[in-house]
Amino acid sequence: MDFPTDQAPGxxxxxxxxxxxxxxxxxxxxxxxxxxxxxxxEGDTLPTERDLALRFAVSRETVRQALRELLLEGRLRRxxxxxxxxxxxxxxxxxxxxxxxxxxxxxxxxxxHLIGLDRFSCPExxxxxxxxxSGEPVWxxxxxxxxxxxxxxxxxxxxxxxxxxxxxxxxxPDSSFYAYLNDRLGITFGGADERIETVLATPRExxxxxxxxxxxxxxxxxxxxSADGRPLERVRTLFRGDRFSFTxxxxxxx
Length: 254
Description:
Elements: H1 25-38, H2 49-56, H3 60-72, E1 76-79, E2 82-85, E3 90-93, H4 99-104, E4 110-121, H5 124-130, E5 137-147, E6 150-160, H6 167-170, H7 177-185, E7 189-200, H8 203-209, E8 216-226, E9 231-240, E10 244-247
Parallel strand pairs: 3-10
Antiparallel strand pairs: 1-2, 4-5, 5-6, 6-9, 7-8, 8-9
Helix pairs in contact: 1-3, 2-3
């Protein structure tokens, strides 16, 4: 196979066209709509399904399938009854930097909306992951993640009450939990174990984030340790797959 030398790095090889050359009709429309998006700016309105069907001489269902994929990929978003061009995805570093820092680096305004802060006895499964004693009091902090007031994720944090005894009285739920730990309590992070997978949101999660249940999500599980090596928090964070990508730096192996 001849490699297309004009192809952008990271793009699908041969633009995703199979070697036998038989291209699904919806994919041709998707490529043409994608080229149209490149000529528009963020927030610009896309022509209607009917107009696109007439322009490309295909059925509205073919157009609809192409738009569905572009919506899932985050190139488009729904706005009212129309479809508009989405902005670039947020790049979140895979590091101990907080969500707040990652969003601010891209010139966006981070925020959070508190869903609940509950206190309960640590169950055995959570105790096994975090080193917290079974039955010991723990906090569960649940918040919707915002970027420029757009709902982009959902975060659940579990932490021992003994480590942060006054979380309910001292902590501003719209602020960075990491900043609170460091600035108010003098707790610094020493490391974390993290696992990433692709999932679909539950009906409750989709409602809180404001997305359709069929939208793929990036799910991060994190167990963080403080500088003294003690387990500190267990976090479950859902990020919208159409609004986020993740970056990291890799060192040479040993």
